[in-house]
Structure to design on (329 residues):
């Protein structure tokens, strides 16, 4: 049976269509994979023109025609107003609505068993907001649309190392109060499950400390003694392969040296700065915990270079390969 991936080309004002064209034309897709793109055929054609590619794409009539087979690329049309003249580099409500419509259709295809995973090119949150997205971000929007009540989180991936975080888009002054034993164990459980979906049978997971030198036995803070350490013990009791807390300033060096698969960080920038310094051009974001595997490049929509043919497809290629791996489980 084919690995069936639903693809969305991202913000039409950005680099998404040209990235999509490069990935699908450049040998990234495995022989056993089939793809259905949801979007405007003109949007794809513009991306191909910029990327200098020529993909053989089957145009479908409607959802009932979607039957993804290995080696085949099809497109399920989703209309974008005046797609041929849509301006690069500018957020517009029409583009936001178009992206939301494409994502809605991809979720429908998953519910109907027509695709196994989703990979979308870079979105733009402002475009989504002015296009009608009422949630904080696309992850919350997808969770709401799926009617999913379980724990979800944004995971980041570079060179085989994954990160999750206990807190995310919150003020730094609030982080210590938001870290709990249950929250840490939930973060460990979520990334363990996603890694197993991606093919790791017994993921090796590192848990970060919060304070300098992981508190140095309570000298610089007691969160490691009172919360993080007990959470690691509980996670191990529940069967997870977890160690910590590790000193935040050296944990990424230790993770690479000792072949850890993942790091659970305590807050957003504790993991994001290091990951982006390590390899920004190939970073991937996975929306972990959802019923459908979803991956996307960690880079933005890059309005400043859209349409110029200089966008690096490395992160989109990596996101597509992760969608293949996770959809196969």
């Amino acid at each position: 049976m084919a690995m069936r991936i639903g693809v969305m080309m991202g913000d039409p004002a950005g680099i998404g269509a040209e990235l999509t064209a490069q990935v699908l034309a450049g040998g990234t897709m495995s022989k056993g994979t089939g793809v259905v793109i949801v979007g405007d055929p003109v949007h794809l054609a513009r991306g191909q023109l910029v990327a200098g590619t020529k993909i053989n794409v089957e145009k479908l009539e409607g959802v009932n025609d979607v039957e993804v087979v290995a080696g085949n690329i099809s497109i399920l049309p989703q209309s974008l107003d005046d797609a041929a003249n849509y301006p690069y580099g500018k957020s517009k409500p029409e583009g936001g609505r178009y992206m939301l419509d494409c994502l809605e259709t991809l979720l429908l295809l998953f519910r109907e068993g027509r695709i196994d995973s989703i990979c979308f090119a870079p979105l733009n949150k402002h475009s989504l907001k002015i296009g009608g997205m009422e949630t904080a971000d696309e992850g919350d929007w997808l969770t709401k649309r799926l009617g999913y009540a379980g724990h979800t989180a944004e995971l980041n991936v570079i060179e085989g190392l994954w990160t999750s975080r206990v807190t995310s888009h919150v003020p730094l002054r609030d982080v210590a109060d938001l870290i709990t034993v249950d929250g840490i164990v939930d973060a460990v459980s979520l990334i363990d499950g996603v890694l197993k979906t991606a093919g790791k049978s017994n993921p090796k997971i590192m848990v970060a400390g919060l304070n300098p030198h992981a508190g140095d036995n309570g000298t610089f803070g007691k969160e490691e003694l009172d919360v993080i350490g007990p959470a690691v013990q509980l996670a191990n009791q529940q069967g997870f392969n977890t160690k910590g807390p590790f000193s935040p300033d050296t944990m990424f060096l230790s993770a690479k040296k000792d072949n850890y698969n993942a790091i659970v960080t305590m807050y957003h920038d504790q993991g994001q700065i290091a990951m982006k310094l390590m390899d920004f051009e190939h970073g991937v974001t996975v929306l972990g915990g959802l019923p459908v595997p979803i991956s996307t490049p960690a880079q933005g929509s890059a309005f400043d270079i859209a349409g110029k043919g200089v966008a690096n497809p490395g992160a989109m290629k990596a996101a597509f390969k992760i969608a293949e791996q996770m959809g196969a489980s």
User: Anything to note?
Assistant: The mean pLDDT is 96. Residues 93-111 form the longest helix (19 residues).
